[in-house]
Design brief:
By secondary structure, this protein is α+β, with helices and mostly antiparallel strands. It has 25 helices and 29 strands.
Length: about 775
């Protein structure tokens, strides 16, 4: 780059005669100017982009030559104001720091290094760090100053926080109630310990700082400790359970937590230690106690005040079927009760009274009902605040069932006692009727009169049979089996069902014509069929269909599963269209006292009685039922193969043996005494009577050789039959005696046999039975004599 200059040279006439020119090389200057502009551009770019504040100050004229844009953001004032007044920035300096700045300016305005605060218009405080240094010319004279300001607010705050944090750390370390120490990662030497460590371990601070962490560990634990420290650089934080040795030699269990830190410029580990010796001992004791509690048969449960289960022993597992893992954390109300109302009422009583004792209805895992005898105790914190509820629950389901069965058995026994008394009186009423009817039938009668007397006799016998049935069920007396007409029983059931069952139940009965007879007790068979029909009725509350069918069937022994020589069976089927029996309880329906009916509507003895009666008859029963599709009971009874004797209901009774022996009749019932006397007299016997045992003994005392036979009732006032027999035996050990009673039990029969009495009359009895037994005993007398 060059600069050309030229000019003309003229003559005196002012005419150009030549041109003169010059050329200057400007390359170097242009390069210098270009470099200066680039330098200024870089300076400006740098000054305007850096975070620091940059300015140039002319000290001679006390004015700012340049200030970077960052000035406005940091100092909170405009650059124009600063250009006009170089000291305007001082207006934002904190009053407390302004004197320090003014002193520094007075000392040397070109060389300042100072930190001070700015108080901005919005009352925000900002910290700045300022440095100035002089710029000199070639002669060394200061021509202006350059300043740099930096916002160090965040640095100051961080430093303050760090300082405060360090102070807090030192305070926490020193005053922490748990032992703490710092040890060198390489040498394992203690670098610092807090007061709690000094107090708990018994070493002084100087002793600690002269030791390593190996010195407080048992020798057998050192390999594990060395391995843990070697791995600490990888895992940094770790925790574990260790054994430490105190100064007095005591071995303690310590739960430690450790982390890597830099302490005084070196790698170290800081440790927080917690002595858990007592806690572990307590836990061991709790485990021992828990093991003892698990051996308890009772269910022991602890739940908090929100009903959440926190403890569940093995007794609870056995009782309820839930494992501890399944039960803990669950709500006791939801887990053990169908109706939570009773539970919450009881829980409230425990909170109010501190304890509760009583019976509860609960359920197990399978939903089965349980009767529980519960003892609940409120557990409190040391300050008396309620904490939880301890429950000790005993299963009394079986005991309650036995109690209920015992009470039912007592009621049945009471009914039996009452029935026995009634039966005795009824037998005394029926006995004269039966004896009188026999006597009346001995005299010549028309066919119509004989039929009427037979009907009366059959009715009386049926009444006597009903009384014996009551005694059989109430007192367990044995029954004699006779040929049973099933067709007649079904006809009686048909009449009863149609008269008493709801009209919505359709009843149908069918009986085969060629049925074999069965040997049994008609009243008991009647009761069996009636029980099954009543159950069928109860299974059809909205009506339905009830059918009875009786057929015969030849079965082999292998088919019926019992040992029986009979091959022909009578099969009775009772079918209903009711709700059916759930499969879950079909195995229990024949259990005594088991019932699905409501309280007061069933004793649970119906089907049990059915099974017992059929067993006594050599038969069995089979049940087939589907829930919602009805039930069918099939009864199998062995047929009777022998042909029964012809039934001539209106035949004239045969004549009986008569004699002239003397018979003493002892009975407190006047009617019975009279009819027996008349009956025996009609057949030639001579009869003496006594109204009670005392009178009988007195009569026999006067005429022991004359009286051939004594017939005595066993239940009499003043002196009963047993006492009467004893007194008669004292007078004459060989006296012939017939015992009679309307109330017979196995115990009574056994006692009579023990007294040597071989003959027993059960009231009511007919003349045929009376005369036959008298003839037998007198015949024994004749043979022996």
């Amino acid at each position: 780059c060059v600069l050309n200059r030229g000019f003309l040279i003229c003559n005196k006439d002012n005419e150009p005669i030549r041109m003169v020119g010059s050329m200057i090389d400007l390359t170097e200057r242009k390069n210098a100017e270009q470099a200066l502009r680039a330098s200024e551009e870089r300076f400006r770019e740098m000054a305007e982009t850096i975070e620091d504040v940059f300015w140039i100050w002319d000290g001679q004229q006390n004015r700012i030559l340049y200030a970077s844009p960052r000035y406005e953001a940091v100092f909170g004032r405009s650059r124009e104001e600063l250009y006009q007044d170089a000291t305007s920035f001082q207006r934002n300096i904190h009053p407390d720091d302004l004197p320090r700045l003014q002193a520094a300016v007075e000392a040397d305005p070109h060389s300042i290094e100072l930190e001070y605060r700015l108080l901005l218009p919005n009352e925000q405080i900002r910290w700045v760090s300022v440095r100035t240094f002089p710029v000199r010319d070639a002669t060394g004279k200061v021509i202006h100053s350059v300043g740099v300001g930096r916002d160090i607010t965040l640095l100051v705050q961080t430093t303050e926080q760090l300082r405060a944090s360090e102070q807090q750390y030192r305070l926490l370390f020193k005053s922490n109630p748990m032992p703490m120490w710092v040890f060198d990662h390489e040498t394992l030497a203690f670098l610092a310990v807090n007061d709690a460590a000094i107090e708990h371990y018994g070493y002084s601070e100087a002793e600690f700082l002269s030791m390593t962490v190996r010195d407080i560990r048992p020798a057998e634990d050192l390999p594990r400790m060395e391995e843990a420290i070697a791995n600490s650089l990888k895992h940094k934080q770790d925790s574990g359970l260790w054994r430490h040795i105190k100064k007095d030699g005591t071995l303690i269990d310590v739960d430690t937590s450790a982390d890597n830190i830099i302490f005084n410029g070196q790698k170290a580990r800081i440790v927080l230690a917690k002595d858990v010796t007592a806690h572990l001992q307590a836990e061991a004791q709790v485990r021992e106690q828990a093991a003892l509690l698990d051996k308890a048969q009772d269910a022991i449960i602890v739940r908090d005040l929100t009903h959440r289960i926190t403890y569940w022993n093995q007794g609870a597992e056995r009782l309820y079927g839930w494992s501890a893992k399944e039960a803990i954390g669950r709500n006791a109300d939801e887990l053990l009760y169908k109706d939570g109302g009773i539970y919450h009422k009881t829980h409230k009583q425990v909170l109010e009274n501190g304890e509760w004792f009583g019976e509860l209805q609960q359920v197990d895992k399978q939903g089965r009902d349980l009767r529980i005898e519960a003892r609940w105790t409120l557990v409190r914190e040391q300050d008396g605040t309620p904490k939880s509820v301890l429950a000790i629950n005993t299963d009394i389901t079986g005991r309650k069932q036995l109690e209920e069965q015992f009470l039912r058995a007592q009621r049945i026994e009471s009914i039996g006692t009452l029935a026995g008394g009634i039966a005795h009186d009824l037998n005394n009423v029926l006995a004269p009727i039966l004896l009188a009817l026999t006597m009346l039938k001995q005299k010549p009668r028309t066919a119509s009169e004989l039929k009427l007397l037979t009907i009366m006799e059959n009715s009386a016998n049926h009444g006597a049979d009903m009384v014996r049935q009551v005694l059989s069920f109430a007192r367990g007396e044995e029954r004699q089996h006779t040929i049973v007409n099933l067709g007649q029983i079904v006809q009686e059931l048909d009449n009863l069902i149609r008269d008493t069952f709801d009209r919505s139940i359709q009843f149908q009965a069918s009986v085969d014509d060629d049925l074999p007879p069965i040997l049994g007790d008609s009243t008991q068979i009647h009761q069996v069929l009636l029980n099954l029909c009543v159950n069928a009725r109860d299974a059809m509350p909205n009506g339905g269909k009830l059918e009875i069918s009786i057929t015969s069937l030849a079965l082999e022994t292998q088919q019926i599963g019992v040992v029986d020589q009979m091959s022909r069976y009578v099969v009775i089927k009772i079918t209903d269209s009711g709700m059916g029996i759930p499969a879950a309880i079909q195995d229990r329906i024949f259990d005594p006292f088991f019932t699905t009916k409501e309280v007061g509507k069933g004793t649970g003895l119906g089907l049990a009685t059915v099974q017992v009666v059929l067993k006594n008859h050599g038969g069995f029963v089979h049940m087939d039922s589907q829930e919602g599709h009805g039930t069918e009971f099939t009864i199998y009874l062995p047929g009777y193969e022998e042909d029964p004797a012809p039934n001539n209901a209106f035949a004239t009774p045969p004549m009986f043996h008569s004699g002239d022996e003397v018979v003493l009749v002892v009975d407190d019932d006047e009617g019975i005494r009279f009819i027996i006397q008349e009956t025996l007299a009609a057949f030639g016997y001579r009869v003496l009577t006594a109204a009670d045992g005392a009178e009988a003994v007195a009569i026999y005392q006067e005429r022991p050789q004359e009286i051939d036979l004594v017939i005595t009732d066993m239940m009499m006032p003043v002196m009963d039959g047993f006492t009467t027999i004893q007194h008669l035996r004292q007078i004459n050990p060989q006296v012939k005696i017939i015992a009679a009673s309307g109330l017979i039990s196995n115990d009574t029969l056994s006692k009579v046999k023990d007294m040597g009495i071989k003959h027993f009359l059960q009231k009511p009895f007919g003349a045929e039975t009376l005369l036959k037994i008298i003839a037998e005993i007198l015949a024994e007398k004749s043979i022996s004599s």
